[in-house]
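Protocol step 4 of 6: structure prediction from sequence.
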Amino acid sequence: MSDILINIKHKHYDSTQHDTIENLKFSLPSNEFICLIGPSGCGKTTLLNIIAQLDNDFEGEISQDGQALHPNIGYIFQNPRLLPWRTVKENIELVLNQGQSFNCVNLLLKSMQLEESKNKYPEHLSLGMSRRVSIIRAFAINPKILLMDEPFVSLDAPTARQVRELLIKLWLQRPHTILFVTHDLREAITLADRLVFLSPSPMSVISEIKVDIARENRNSENEIEGFRQKLLQNYPEINDLL
């Protein structure tokens, strides 16, 4: 399957004459896990909204094989956005199209260790559990692209580590393209096949770096820290983005 091409020439809001995004170009290969890293306010969420077709007011194109992209997209926000009057399972089933198998929900719940919580309401879930529900809901539609906007922000370190591990396990079982926004370089190195570093506004791509640590070694803090140190030494411009 050919790459999805992101080419945003200009994006600005009516309230300002300054571009939020300018001449931003990169590709999304099939089934690759890509982390976007850039300073606060540079336009990362705006970029995700453009890809998700929630914001069409820009100059440029999101395309595949020269055609405008109309993919099945999953979107995980910082806030889990669960409906409080529906159970965990009902929140997930809401996104399924008519004819889709509801059995996949049970499989996903089991994969994310939430099978015993399927009949609970959101108010009885921890934040980490709510985030896992939002991940399941996004995977349930079998998206071509999954957009994740700092989904683990505000989680304590052990919970964030657990959810990351479950996310990767689920992604390896159901591979597709993931575009993941984070400010945490260690988190990005742990998760990504490729890191895309973004400039301050107007946002553009500064560097694209492949993470060449084997997946089975991603739980090693020494491996992650060693790669991080080498990255900061070889690409000193990255320091200003973190």
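Step 5 (inspection) to follow. The chain has one domain: 4-183+190-215.
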